[in-house]
């Protein structure tokens, strides 16, 4: 990897005031890039914030930080598979099957499905103990926002050529995030579906199973959604969070 300095860009947008003042979460985004890419990355993030199906943002926060490229971890993207299901009920059953195969407990699976099905204003991810199903973080609706990960640009073009049906920025972002999370020491699995009302496909991710898309995990028009990271019992949580928020990961 190049020795040029990298920059982390983080965006979060809300409606009805800032997140910390009780505003509704509209959109977030995180990118990593070189200095000469910053302007283009900023305008991409602003476009995402300003044209969003969850609503019209009236608060946008953008943070740009230089990161140490030497600390960057290079990871291959998780392999992708797709489970076609008829409706959200079948999709959630499929998610449960996949999570069970990864040794996530029944209690933890139930808690995660119940949480994601009811929360409609979660900005980051919730950490659940993969055995007891208990929540491990104390972040409330803020959750843990994974950042400092992005695709190597050439690797992405190559990947897109091999996966012509998966060309959307949404899928690229989800795979980068799922790869960083799957390889974080302590992660057992991830369950995700979007909080965007029109996007019903979600996934179960892990090192062992890869990125398993499930075509429907909720009904059209539903604002529920979020992410749950199932964590191995005994993981040192503050260290786990620092890794997710701070360690730069390059998908290459
Ligand atoms: N770190 C932690 N949690 C996040 C992050 C992040 N960087 N970004 C989003 N989340 C959480 C947060 O709770 C959001 O409300 C929720 O995930 C959904 O985010 O077809 O579009 O960006 O293969 O709406 C997955 C399937 C799409 C894509 C996921 O999520 C496919 C998606 P969204
Ligand atoms: Mg988002
Ligand atoms: Mg996103
Ligand atoms: Mg969203």
TrEMBL record:
EC number of this enzyme: 6.2.1.14
GO molecular function ontology, one term from the record: magnesium ion binding
GO-annotated biological processes: biotin biosynthetic process
Keyword tags: ATP-binding, Biotin biosynthesis, Ligase, Magnesium, Nucleotide-binding
Catalytic activity: heptanedioate + ATP + CoA = 6-carboxyhexanoyl-CoA + AMP + diphosphate
Cofactor(s) of this protein: Mg(2+)
Domain of life: Bacteria
Pfam families: BioW
Pathway terms, separated by semicolons: Metabolic intermediate metabolism; pimeloyl-CoA biosynthesis; pimeloyl-CoA from pimelate: step 1/1
Function: Catalyzes the transformation of pimelate into pimeloyl-CoA with concomitant hydrolysis of ATP to AMP.
Subunit record text: Homodimer.
Protein name: 6-carboxyhexanoate--CoA ligase
Native source organism of the sequence: Aneurinibacillus danicus
Origin organism lineage: Bacteria, Bacillati, Bacillota, Bacilli, Bacillales
Gene: bioW
